[in-house]
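WP5 quarterly update. Target: ATP synthase subunit b. Source organism: Sterolibacterium denitrificans. Length: 156 aa.
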Amino acid sequence: MNLNATLFAQLGVFFILAWFTMKFVWPPIMKALDERAQKIADGLAAADKAKTDLVNTEKKVVEEIRKARESATEVRAGAEKQGSLLIEEARAEAARIISQAREAAEAEAGVAAQRAKEALREQVALLAVAGAERILRREINADVHADLLANLKTEL
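Structure tokens (predicted):
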């Protein structure tokens, strides 16, 4: 064989192999590479979307925490205000009850003092009658001298 014929034969085989490769081998490889590239691009897009979603979610969480703190502060302030109001009401009620108790005690003491004065006047009147009986050495009738005893009670 001649070198030229070998060269042309190899050139023919090369072109047939190149055509076969481009027709039957190359398209599935390109398709697999394109699919892989698409999967990678989709993965990167999903990762970027996840990052933006994470940032947005973190912002929302921070905002919700801020709102919750504000709400808790408002609730706490309301509770403190209500507690102070209840304490003031309780103090006012306690002061009213103490005042009523003092007034009742003073009234009771006044009534008791009045009773004690009346009882003391009765005893003084009886002692005065008893003393007068001893001095006069005769019996004094309390019914007969009722006017005299009433005047003596009022003077005491």
